[in-house]
Structures are given as structure tokens and as C-alpha cells.
Amino acid sequence: xxxxxxxxxxxxxxxxxxxxxxxxxxxxxxxxxxxxxxxxxxxxxxxxxxxxxxxxxxxxxxxxxxxxxxxxxxxxxxxxxxxxxxxxxxxxxxxxxxxxxxxxxxxxxxxxxxxxxxxxxxxxxxxxxxxxxxxxxxxxxxxxxxxxxxxxxxxxxxxxxxxxxxxxxxxxxxxxxxxxxxxxxxxxxxxxxxxxxxxxxxxxxxxxxxxxxxxxxxxxxxxxxxxxxxxxxxxxxxxxxxxxxxxxxxxxxxxxxxxxxxxxxxxxxxxxxxxxxxxxxxxxxxxxxxxxxxxxxxxxxxxxxxxxxxxxxxxxxxxxxxxxx
Length: 325
Ligand code: ASP
Known about the structure:
Oligomer: single chain
Number of domains: 2
Number of helices: 11
CATH class of the largest domain: Alpha Beta
Low-confidence stretches: 11-19
CATH topology of the largest domain: D-Maltodextrin-Binding Protein, domain 2
Strand content: 15-25%
Distance between the termini: 67 Å
Bound molecules: aspartic acid
Largest sheet: 10 strands, mixed
Shape: globular
């Protein structure tokens, strides 16, 4: 009898261990809700590499599902099979979309398992290289002289570049024509080519271009100046007179709602392990991003944080009167 009991216990332990090791049993896809080559995509590709290690070399691929300010990609993951093999890397757009889209096809808080945050990414205000304004004071004057003719690129309603651009227009009291793209990688191409004037974008997309002197760089969107070598000479918009201007793009990882708890736990453990990778941290820091490694890696804390972000940005967006159907 005692022996049978031991045998059953041993079999049970083996079964648990086997099922724990069974995940992931096929390639994992990280859906990026923006175009390839942009900031979210860059973070996802770096993250895929460290997650692969955390998943015992299981393949991790990145799929770009850009459009509609990130809502198409988020929706795809909301409706994906909840087996942990389809993940979403998204950002502050998780919190801006509910206020912007009258018919958002998913429920931000109800349709996802929250796995944890990944990083905080500051933004920069940049301009086309041919813009006749070398610094922010000159830009202010150029904007005053060119009212009604200025355009501003973004990655669609709800994107970080949209939110930042909205706050910038409000703070400057200048209306600009917004030009939406499927991500800020194609928007950057048009900034470089001179087809659009200005863009507010994550440092993970702009630091290289700024360092190479390929774009005009006017300011950072954080309250404190940045220490990243490529960006440390840039003033903050706050110090330039746009008091309180502060936009930092947090990024988080999500799975479809209904993903079994043991898999959510394994994904969270893999994320924690991945974010400790010194190479990953170094690469992100070189582009101005700060990888998180604290309580924000706790799924419950991250979900509470997103809920608070929805409450924070909703009224700001509604006040601007912008909606999409
Ligand atoms: N930077 C984009 C945004 O404005 C997203 C992207 O292309 O990664 O949200």
C-alpha cells in the first residue's frame, strides 16, 4: 500500500514535470502591432532572442501586424489560441486606444493575460533634415511663421507618436496635419526624405539617426535630460517652457485571455529571466530605453498599472476630441 502510494506520487511528479517542460512545444510568435524596423519591432526582435534562450532554444519569431494605431495587432492576439504560443508586445497604446476607438474590437483589460512590463522608452522630437530650424527656439519661430502648413508623422490613432504629437500640438497651440503610418519606421523614411516635417518618436528609433546627424533633433519628452551618449545634449520639452511635458513609452508583454495559469507563470518566469540578460540590457540602454526588473514584472501589478494609465490618458484624449470608429 505504502509502495503504491509512493509509485503514484512519483508518477504524478513526473507528469507535472513533463507538462511543465512541454511548453513551448512549437515556435512562439511575438506579434508587433506596428511595421518592421520601428521601435516596437526592434525591442521585440531583441526580446525574441533572449526569450529563445529562456525557452531552451525554442524558436521565437516576430510577426508585424501594423495599422490602426496598433489595434489590429492587439486584436489578432486577443483572438489567438490561448496556448501561450502567440504573444503581443505592445506599449502605452494599450491605454490610449480605449478612449480613441468607439468600436475597439477587444477589451484591453478583459481579453489578455498580463505577463509583465518590458521597458520604459523616452521619446524625442525630431524633424526632417532640411527643416530651417537648428534648435527649439528656431523651431518655435518656424512653426509660428508656417501655421497651417506643418505636418506631423505618427503611427496612427493611439500610437505613442500620436499621443506625444497630440500633447505637443496642445502645448504649442499649433494645429498640424497629421500623417499616419503603420509604424514609425516608414514614417522615419519620410522624415529622412523630407516628405514630412516633424515626428515625436521613441529613442529606440531615433537615437541612431540623431547620432549620425541625419535628422533634426529638438528635445526629449522626459522631465529629466537623458544620459545616453547620443541623446544627452538634448533639452527636455519641460525645460524649454512646455511645463510638465512628460511622455515615457512603457512596453509590456501579453498573451490571450484564458492561457492556462501554469503557462502564464512560465511565460512570466521566462520574461524575468530574459530581462536580466546583460547584452539585452546594454543594447536597450544604448538606444535610451530602460529595461524593467522590479515589481512591474508582476502580472497583477502590470494590469493595475495599465488600468491606471487608461484612467490617466482617457480624459486627455477625450479633451482633444479625437475619435476613430
Ligand atoms: N513608435 C510607434 C508609435 O508611435 C510604434 C512603432 O512603430 O513601433 O507608437
